[in-house]
Amino acid sequence: MIQKIKYIGLAVFIITAFFSVGHIQSDEYFQIMEFAQYKLGQINASELPWEFNERMRPSLQPWLAYLFIKIFHFIGLENPFYIATIFRLLSAILMWSIFTRLNDYIVNKYFKESKWQNIFYASILLLWFVPFISVRFSSENYAALFLLLSLLTLTKTRSYGNLIFIGFTLGISFLFRYQMGIAILAIYAHLLFIDKTKFLKVLTSGSIIILIIALAIYLDSLFYNQLTFAPLNYLKLNLIDGKAANFGTSPFFAYLYLFLAFAAPPISFILLASYTKGVIILKKHLFVWVSIFFILIHSLIGHKEVRFLFPIMYLFIFIAIYGLMTYFKNKEIKKWHRRLFRVSFVINFLLLVFMMFKPLNGTVKLYGFLYKNVSEKNNLIISTSKETYHFLVDLKSTFYRPKNITSLAIYSSENIKNYLIKNNIKTAFLVHNQLYFDEKFDNYEIKRVYSAYPSWIKSIKFIDWQKAIRTKSVYLLTQKKK
């Protein structure tokens, strides 16, 4: 059964990678892909997010994106949507591989009954939020990948060679996301105080991280064109100067309700209760130390987002399923338990299928339509709100922008009509910031060619769709033949 779950999980990851267009949060896009675009000469530094001028973001992932894009361009692959899909497929395969490698070790050590082995394996691969998180080319994902690689190595002997490799993988994890320093401290504390690993071995492993950080200083300085120690800049701006608090603050306990809402009740309640039980049972386990340290330190920081905890997703699920198994070890499964699990299973299945095919960002999907349909004869894009390639958090987007287009923002229908007539425009795309564009232009046919919503919903009269839905639609304007 485990083999079936394993390959069903792989299929789900791959399907999700194809359809999960866009990003969870804008940092995933702007501070990787647009930073890479800067090194490719496609965008000016002044047009990048504020973090660039502060030299506070790690450059490893933008450098990787830059390198891959250069290779893709060299072999003739320039479509950014194909490139983004390849990045997601790469992420999916890497995360599936590390998950299954760790799973094979964990099921044999911690889950003796085949029933619980199957439940654990399915939870790691098929909980509804796991695939769409795992296919992201994000700092959280790749930091998690190298964290899990180090934890997999820790399942082996504590030889100098293994500990040196652990230092390398933890160092790389840190270079993807500086918050991984919390997990690194937890791992070394556990090695010293619980595992009783010799201090010299731990010191040797830690020295590799120092060497990796030294390499990062070189990469960051090369990226920002001046001597840069980005981790210190990040620490100063976000924690000492309190810059992160400008994006909102939440109370210490906020991750409780943020997680309960994110993971979807009743699934989230089962996971949280089971995790609590698992922490109590496994209180000296390495995974507990890492996850608790990680959650507590993040809870002390005012600005909170669920995605900040994504790097410990695997650890959380393992502890939760172990806690659930322990809870039912000497207890009868009652009728209400079965009903709760059935409801959770159905909800999880529906959400899993939905998220497999759902584009994560509607604007990026719209960009995909425009990229596919603009041509040499039709390369004008007019927006009725802000310029089309500033839709994503009001920053300039160059990665998805087709070459040799004209993109304008014209805010009134009268001005659009005047522009079309004055410049004798034969055809253009009109991007409207509502579901329908009801204006008429003399001498132009107006046809809706793209919308996230079907045209038939307009027949439902008791809802004002223009006000009820925040969306964008694309219309093709074609000059009538005289």
Secondary-structure content class? alpha/beta
The fraction of residues in strands falls at 5-15%
> How many helices in DSSP terms?
20
Distance between the termini: 68 Å
SSE pattern, N- to C-terminal: HHHHHHHHHHHHHHHHHHEEHEEHE
Based on CA atoms alone, the radius of gyration comes out at 25 Å
Task: Produce the secondary structure layout.
Layout: H1 2-19, H2 26-39, H3 50-54, H4 60-74, H5 80-110, H6 114-126, H7 129-134, H8 139-153, H9 160-176, H10 180-193, H11 199-224, H12 230-240, H13 254-262, H14 267-281, H15 286-300, H16 313-327, H17 335-357, H18 362-373, E1 380-383, E2 406-409, H19 413-422, E3 427-432, E4 444-451, H20 465-468, E5 473-479
Parallel strand pairs: 1-2, 1-3
Antiparallel strand pairs: 3-5, 4-5
Helix pairs in contact: 1-5, 1-6, 2-4, 5-6, 5-8, 6-16, 8-9, 9-11, 10-15, 13-14, 14-16, 15-16
At a glance:
The protein has about 475 residues and is α/β, with parallel strands linked by helices. It is built from 20 helices and five strands.
Question: Would you write up a description of this structure?
Answer:
The protein contains 20 helices and five strands. It is α/β, with parallel strands linked by helices and 482 residues long. Among the domains are: 84 residues, no CATH class; 118 residues. A five-stranded mixed β-sheet has the order 2-1-3-5-4. Helix 5 packs parallel to helix 8, helix 9 packs parallel to helix 11 and helix 14 crosses helix 16. It is globular. The mean pLDDT is 95.
List keywords for this structure.
single chain; alpha/beta; 482 residues; 6% strand; globular; 20 helices; 5-stranded mixed beta sheet
